[in-house]
Structures are given as C-alpha cells and as structure tokens.
Design brief:
By secondary structure, this protein is mainly alpha-helical. The protein has one domain. The chain is built from four helices and two strands, in the order H-E-E-H-H-H. It has a two-stranded antiparallel sheet. Strand 1 (29-34) and strand 2 (37-42) form a beta hairpin. Helix 1 (7-24) packs antiparallel against helix 2, helix 1 (7-24) packs parallel to helix 3 (70-92) and helix 3 packs antiparallel against helix 4 (118-147). The longest helix is centred in the C-terminal third of the chain and has 30 residues, at 118-147. It starts with 6 loop residues before the first helix and ends with a helix.
C-alpha cells in the first residue's frame, strides 16, 4: 500500500469530508446571541468556511510541494482537524448543552476556569498545528532560496 505524499490533496479531501455533514444538515441553523444581537448562521455556511480554510491550506501546500516537509504537514493536519470537528459537533448538538446566557446560568459547573479539559487540549493542539504550518512554510521557503541558482 502506497501512502499519499501530497499534502495538498490530503487537505482538500479533509475539507470535503468536513463539508459533507454541513450539506446534509444544511437547512438547520446555529443561533448565537451576542449582547443584544441575535445571529443565525446556517450550517452550510459553517461548512463552506471550513472548506475554504482547508482549501487555502491546500493551495499553500500545493505551491510549496517541492520543498515541504511531509511529516510537519501531516502533523499539521492531525493537530488542526480535531478543532474543526469539535466546532461542527458542538454546533450540531446545540452548543453542547451550554445555556443561552451565561450570566443567567445558575449551574456551578459552567465556571470557565483555567483548564476546561478536552476543549483546552483541542485548542492547544490547534495552535500547535498552526505553528507547525508556519514552520513548514518557512522551512520550505528557506530550502527554495538555498537551492536557487545564483547568477
């Protein structure tokens, strides 16, 4: 079995896989209350946003495909994808049971302390994934500049 060494195709396919549930549940909406404003966002738009983000990753990896580090790119994919899956799942399940207004909630378990468990771990992995992405692109540019013939 050969492994897929094209990170641009991996990111594009992952974006498509994140778009499929949003197409299926496209008629549902996510309600967000910010102060006195009520926002309604269709799941299709959330999926299109994620597909656009993964498309940008795919484009950057396509442009730097000759000099990129496959392991750093694969770690980027593995670290970033759980964040988007978490956002999709919590939005599909009505924000994971969170109350509509935090200031009216009497639930003592809703205190947002320093460490909130899996959410913080997923966010830390997301930030690490972004740092890996920037490192991979920076290393690709340095490799390209070193291998460029001097005139």
């Amino acid at each position: 079995m050969t492994k897929l060494k094209r990170l641009d195709i991996l990111f594009f396919l992952t974006g498509l896989l994140l778009l499929i549930p949003c197409l299926v549940f496209g008629d549902r909406a996510l309600d967000i209350t910010v102060h006195d404003t009520y926002f309604v966002i269709a799941y299709l738009h959330i999926g299109l946003l994620f597909f656009f983000i993964y498309g940008l990753y795919s484009l950057v990896y396509f442009l730097t495909r000759v000099y990129q580090n496959y392991v750093l790119g694969l770690m980027h994919l593995i670290f970033v994808t759980p964040f988007f899956i978490h956002v999709l799942l919590t939005s599909f399940y009505s924000m994971g049971g969170l109350p509509r207004r935090y200031y009216t909630s009497n639930n003592p378990e809703m205190t947002f302390g320093f460490f909130r468990g899996p959410i913080d771990i997923i966010f830390i992995l997301f930030v690490l994934g972004q740092l890996l992405f920037l490192t991979n692109i920076g290393l690709s540019i340095i490799k390209a500049l070193k291998q460029r013939p001097r005139s």
